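Notes to self after the Tuesday call (sharing in case useful).
The group wants a holo model before anyone commits to mutagenesis around the pocket. I volunteered. Ligand is magnesium ion. Logging inputs and output together so the record is complete.
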Amino acid sequence: MLEKAKGLPADQVFMDIEDAVAPIAKPDARKNIVAALNEGGYEGKVRTVRVNDWTTQWTYADVIEVVEGAGPNLDCIMLPKVQTAEQVVALDMLLTQLEKSNGFEVGRIGIEAQIENALGLINIDAIAQASPRVETLIFGPADFMASINMKSLVVGEQPPGYDVGDAYHYILMRILMAARAYDKQAIDGPYLAIKDLDGYARVAGRSAALGFDGKWVLHPGQVEVANEVYSPRQDDYDHAEMILDAYDYYTSAEGGAKGAVMLGDEMIDEASRKMALVISAKGRAAGMIRTQTFAPPQA
Ligand code: GLV
Ligand code: MG
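Result:
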């Protein structure tokens, strides 16, 4: 898996010492991860390690071994099951000491906070602001479902009996609001039925539609679907670029210095420009190429 991840078109790779690693295998996992990070091959991807959460006995040793062993080749520590801002501060302080004592740049290693229980969600605003290292807020649906006693065993799908909307809407929105308020990335968590790509696309489509920046993949087969779902559709990307060009032109002296204009059948104004910037940024980040250009009207 460590080898295969190198060639995949994913934006990030995270290596796990937490729930996908059995307790007796954790010491070896730390060593394998340090070796893999130092060997390299993950260029262009955010290199992250998920350590165990602060309620276990492993967290401090996970962080020390991984950062001392591979600090310069590591971009982020993912902290699971975050419940309070203090847990983020504790990781921040440990990272700072490790960076100082090893002569690494202080503050470079970021923190990704996984929101996986009721207390974490209630404290999310403080968690997001607990350290400048916090880059990302991640929804952990499996642990979250367990934490709130949700009556279901199928991660990300609607719990049987709930037929009036999306049972995850509040959680997703709460995470997204904190992410946008404090300028963090909002990332959706895993979809466990790795062969069900339609299911992945359906569940990912919900968080993507709300404004999430991406979603975990557990298997190479999910990468392509994820990249597609979180990128704009070609039509929308083209439309966004057209709005930006048209608005640029019409607000200029040459275009009449107007603040609200018609683009086809649609009125566009400053708010339209902001919406278009979002879609255009997502499209550009995904490397999309526009297929239409804006032509100013002939005088
Ligand atoms: C991920 O860690 C999850 O619990 O869903
Ligand atoms: Mg979890």
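Two things stood out.
Residues 9 and 223 are 7 Å apart (CA to CA).
Strands lie at 12-16, 46-50, 76-79, 110-115, 134-139, 185-188, 214-215, 261-263, 266-268.
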